[in-house]
Amino acid sequence: MVHPGLSAGWVLVVLVSMILLSVWLMRSVPVATRSVNLPVISIFNLPFVGKIIQRIISRPAVITMLRIFAAATFLLVIAAGLFGTQVAERNIATTLTWTLWWSGVVISVFFVGSAWCAICPWDAIATWLVRRRLWKKGSAISSFNIRVPKVIRNIWPALIMFVVLTWLELGYGVTTSPYATALLALLIVVLATISLAVYERKAFCRYFCAVGRTLGAYGGIAPIALRPIDNAVCANCKTLECYNGSNDIEPCPTHLVMGSLKQNTYCTSCGACTQSCPYQNINWQIRNIGDEITYSARPHWDESWFILGLLSLTMFHGFTMMPYWEDWMRQLAYMIGDSGRILTSFSIGMAVAMFIPVLLYSACITWLQYITGKQENWRRIFSAMALSILPLAFAYHIAHNLSHLVRESQGFISVVFNPFGTNTLPLSTHEIHMRHLNPVVDNNIVFALQAILILFGFWMALKILRYRLPQISTSGKPESRLAFMPMLVFISLMSIINLWLLMQPMIMRM
Amino acid sequence: MNINTILVMTSLLFVTFNSFAHHVLGRPSYSLGEDSNTPPSMQVETQIGEYYVTYMAFPAFPKPGDSGRVNLYASRIDNGLPFNGKVRFKVRDDSFFSSKEEILGVQNIDDGVYRQGFVFKDAGDYIVTAEFESNGEPYVIDFPLRIGEPFPIGPIGLTIFVISLLLLFVNITQRKRLAHVKASQHHQKDSNEQSAGYKP
Fold this sequence. Notes:
The complex is a heterodimer of chains A (about 500) and B (about 200). Helices cover about 60% and strands about 5% of the residues of chain A. With about 500 residues, chain A is mainly alpha-helical. In chain A, α15 (about 300-320) runs parallel beside α18 (about 380-410) and α16 (about 325-335) packs across α17. The N and C termini of chain A lie close together (about 5 Å). Helices cover about 20% and strands about 35% of the residues of chain B.
């Protein structure tokens, strides 16, 4: 079913706002440094609900109950995928996984950060199998506890896994096959279990999991994070229970020390630190959206590539849903003599689509390096400026997923009552049209949210650029306002492409 | 995979029209007309050059031994006239390791439709291909077809086997290592005691 794209009125509003913001950036005085004393509110100090949340979070049983629920749902997904109907829209495996979860989990970052990781069923099942404990600390001999080899002690494996997942999703069509969805779910459980049984702590979460690293990267923008209440307490702490664990509680699964934590990238929100801290000094804090990525996050080479990968792949999602895409693929398949599922043509198209943003970004970084008099290391500029494109990926990702969530989630209730789709038939033309005519949320609201998101991404990108650009200069300020141009061009170009993608009529899965 | 047991069921008429050669992205959708009592079909609709092409398989989920049918409709975009020619239907395994291909049949148009019957003896994933030529241009359309239910026990069994084997290996190795460490410590302790007791 083809759904309409963003209306021209909203596009005009966004474009005019983008021009005004660009003028503001070029005229404003660059921010060289800023004391990082960012305003935060401790959730536990919130009236009425604060204490309740504290009790819930500091008890392992509550998190365990949520994990059991998530794992049970996950097992239902696998069973339905393997034994249920293969009509995608009637089976809970495909509807829950691809329509609700995959679309919703990115949106959830905006409200609860990387909280999904805390109840992730892949990790929960792997942990129960290897550690043989529902909660509390597992047996020391249940894993080899080998240190992850240095060559993969980064998030390149997660980026590769994200590319593979996207290929399976859009190329192989795993989203339209309950059986393939179940196989993929099982495969990831096996990978998580192997990783936990071989490597120390939770190497899968930290280095390999594409979903976790995506949520972690976007977590830098999220308004909520686990942080120390009083930094002085952490500074004087000699035992570091958050890092080492306690008698009952596991150590931080991703090797984080809360006292020196500056960014959310690797936090899985598991809450082990809140439970193990003898001073009860760790809690959830509400902060300004984007403050972490703007001021305190440290640029890293592998993380910058992951961010670039996120931008490319989210835009690629949009491209593949346009009516033009299939026509291009057919033409390419004809040119190279590809047939069948034309996976070779798809792979080439995907590689090209991923390569173009990387090429453009690299060109802009080279231009920026030239403007700054070639005093700065190209790699350092590349890493630092990537932080400014994260909001673009985040905003488009949410805007795109909003379409899926609103337009494809209809009829989910009937799937909940019949998860295996027993004795169901494919959607009739009448049902498809009725769903199209009666969306869960009015199209105009979706358009408004999408326009606001793209504008938010653009504004946040400029805000980060304004703070980060002076930092790459040894003098602490850019040589001229011209230094803003390369990244401003890139950010504007990507935002306009994202806007254009949202304007296009999109072929949805149902 | 053996596809020798494919039976050709239908045959028909033809004439000619111009078109481009293209491929169809193999992403099926399942549908059921609200005013139709036919079994659910799997179909691909696409625009190919100057034609709209619809490719349908009945039933949507054929089982080994079931009679099935593929229908191909091709009509010009500009005036809606149906393509009129000969269409060759072929089938092959949808697998990386097999390139075996068989001709299902060559069909002529019948009431605007090219119909090709089939019976598959073995379950599996197949690609059905429709080919025709017009103005010297080869025209190839591929269509994925699943015969029978995918085997559900295999993946679960494999997962349980891999995980069990891994956990068993890790546990045995770790226990042996622990026992070895304990034995070494014990041996070390005995040696130390003997050294302490030895007075030359």
